[in-house]
TrEMBL record:
GO biological process: one example: phosphate ion transport
InterPro entries: MFS_dom, MFS_sugar_transport-like, MFS_trans_sf, Phos_permease
Lineage of the species this protein comes from: Eukaryota, Viridiplantae, Streptophyta, Embryophyta, Tracheophyta
Cellular location(s): Membrane
An annotated Gene Ontology molecular function: phosphate transmembrane transporter activity
Topology of this chain in the membrane: Multi-pass membrane protein
Any one GO cellular component localisation term in the record: membrane
Tagged with keyword Transmembrane helix: yes
Main location group: membrane
Protein name (database record): Inorganic phosphate transporter 1-4-like
One Pfam family this sequence matches: Sugar_tr
Alphabetized UniProt keyword annotations: Membrane, Phosphate transport, Symport, Transmembrane, Transmembrane helix, Transport
Domain Major facilitator superfamily (MFS) profile: 24-532
Length: 565
């Protein structure tokens, strides 16, 4: 930071890692735990929903959700998330991060419970109600992306900022893992209490009436971690960077951060502090400042509106950065979410989950949940925390480029000899490669696409630009969620899931996803490296006069105070 830097911002940049950093990670991270739990737990229960609400008497296979219903149930939360990211991202820059932070959490709590209480007299009304609540659940989840990332970046010091933001995002891994583990225990408990024959033995009896409680309980439990952190989220002060750089209240920023950092921070620049010894000089400067008050106000307003979002000046300074963060997130999420959503079908194809007709409804939930839990435990969670450990050592750019590269390699390694991996003797090899794909997704672009947009844009646009980047990612997730439900279908129309037209198959889908990862590598080159740099240095706020002007305003405030005294 330059010599005109505000003391409070400099204090944050050089602060040692303290308890408040970890408190912020937990408070923001529990939101992401809930986000991941809610978004991914639906894939655990879609097969169960099909058995309960779309059973067909005499059918050789258990009931399954029709294509349009499956697409809606899986994808509607993503639609809500996209809208929430844009709306709350914009609102976070207009009203402040803290003021809207609690709203997103309450939306998640209420709509998680509402999802589990979905009501109706027939399958259509139940699915409609479920989709309604999951849209608004996604809306709340969407707001958590830009707000949590921005708050953590603005609280952090520049030495470990990447690790702190990545740690918030890494709570997603525990959310996915927690969802799988909880579904395993719930399905085991119901299986022990309400045993049933396989579908092939007795199609009707294979789905016990009590199975309807399983999916409802799994969805509703997502409200608990969010509700538990609401009180602490409301106690967090507004970030100093928003208060000082956007709200222009350096005194309040210094006061808030003094409490957080447990140190005295004066709402002055170093230059103004040197003037305390010369009372006469202060009086003369005070008179000058009073005489130019209107000019000062005009200059401040001009500075505040120096350039707007999507203005020519913004596009010149940050246009390629926003393009890089948005498109790389878009391309990555197509691959990541499509794999998550049809992983249960991959497990079935390679024999890890037996054919549906050989199991009852509760057994199928158990098998799917166990598979997702093992993948999360072996690859997803470790990948996130490898990013936390190395992001401030090797940088964001290297991790993102490496992640896209290895995802490409492993997807091609799965796809090209795909028939080889479907043979019974080669199942373990398939699982290892599939796990490595997820490991490098999370020790790679899944984390970095979240971290970087919170670091490289000016404070007054930071939340909005992160929301735009994240919404672009969710658009990719929707392509994956909707598109690959169809694309991954078998090319033989006699072997597709009920109601689906023939697709391009899993092999060609994986080849296509590998190609998208190559594009992701190319767009990574548009994103600057933020390792070890202050937010103001990355955003250009040191250069455009924002910090210097705030320093002059603080001096004027101090001069007036001394003069009036």
């Amino acid at each position: 930071m330059g010599k005109e830097s505000l003391q409070v911002l400099n204090a944050l940049d050089v602060a040692k890692t303290q308890w408040y950093h970890f408190t912020a990670i937990i408070i923001a991270g529990m939101g992401f735990f809930t986000d991941a739990y809610d978004l991914f737990c639906i894939s655990l229960v879609t097969k169960l929903l099909g058995r309960i609400y779309y059973h067909v008497d005499g059918a050789p296979k258990p009931g399954s959700l029709p294509p349009n219903v499956a697409a809606a149930v899986n994808g509607v939360a993503f639609c809500g998330t996209l809208v929430g990211q844009l709306f709350f991202g914009w609102l976070g820059d207009k009203m402040g991060r803290k003021r809207v932070y609690g709203v997103t959490l309450m939306l998640m709590v209420v709509c998680s419970i509402g999802s589990g209480l979905s009501f109706g007299h027939n399958s259509q009304s139940v699915m409609t109600t479920l989709c309604f609540f999951r849209f608004w659940l996604g809306f709340g989840i969407g707001g958590d992306y830009p707000l949590s990332a921005t708050i953590m970046s603005e609280y952090s010091n520049k030495k470990t900022r990447g690790a702190f933001i990545a740690a918030v995002f890494a709570m997603q891994g525990f959310g996915i893992l927690g969802g799988g583990i909880f579904a395993v225990f719930i399905s085991m408990a119901f299986k022990a209490k309400f045993d049933a024959p396989a579908y092939a033995v007795d199609p009707v009896a294979s789905t016990v009436p009590q199975a309807d409680y399983i999916w409802r309980i799994i969805l509703m439990v997502g409200a608990l971690p969010a509700a538990l952190t609401y009180f602490w989220r409301m106690k967090m002060p507004e970030t100093a960077r928003y208060t000082a750089l956007v709200a222009k209240d350096t005194a309040q920023a210094a006061s808030d951060m003094s409490k957080v950092l447990h140190m005295d921070i004066e709402a002055e620049t170093p230059e103004s502090a040197q003037c305390h010894g010369d009372a006469r000089k202060w009086e003369l400067e005070s008179a000058q400042c009073h005489g130019h008050a209107q000019k000062c106000d005009r200059d401040t307003q001009q500075l505040r509106n120096a350039y707007g979002l999507f203005s020519k000046e913004f596009l010149r300074r940050h246009g390629t950065h926003l393009l890089g963060t948005a498109i790389s997130w878009f391309l990555f999420d197509i691959a990541f979410y499509s794999q998550n959503l049809f992983q249960k079908d991959i497990f079935t194809a390679i024999g890890w989950i037996p054919p549906a007709a050989t199991m009852n409804a509760v057994e199928e939930v158990f098998r799917i949940a166990r598979a997702q839990t093992l993948i999360a435990l072996c690859s997803t969670v470790p990948g996130y925390w490898f990013t936390v450990a190395f992001i401030d050592r090797i940088g964001r750019f290297a991790i993102q480029l490496m992640g896209f590269f290895f995802m490409t390699v492993f997807m091609f390694a799965l796809a090209i000899p795909y028939h080889h991996w479907t043979l019974k003797d080669n199942q373990i090899g398939f699982i290892v490669l599939y796990s490595l794909t997820f490991f490098f997704a999370n020790f790679g672009p899944n984390a970095t696409t979240f971290v970087v947009p919170a670091e490289i844009f000016p404070a007054r646009f930071r939340s909005t630009c992160h929301g735009i980047s994240a919404a672009s990612g969710k658009l990719g997730a929707m392509v994956g969620a909707f598109g690959f439900l169809y694309l991954a279908q078998n090319q033989d129309k006699n072997r597709t899931d009920a109601g689906y037209p023939p697709g391009i198959g899993v092999k060609n889908s994986l080849l296509l996803l590998g190609g998208l990862n190559v594009l992701g590598m190319l767009f990574t080159f548009l994103v600057p490296e933020a390792k070890g740099k202050s937010l103001e240095e990355m955003s250009g706020e040191n250069e455009d006069g924002t910090i210097e002007e705030l320093g002059r305003q603080t001096q004027t405030f101090s001069h007036r105070t001394v003069s009036e005294a």
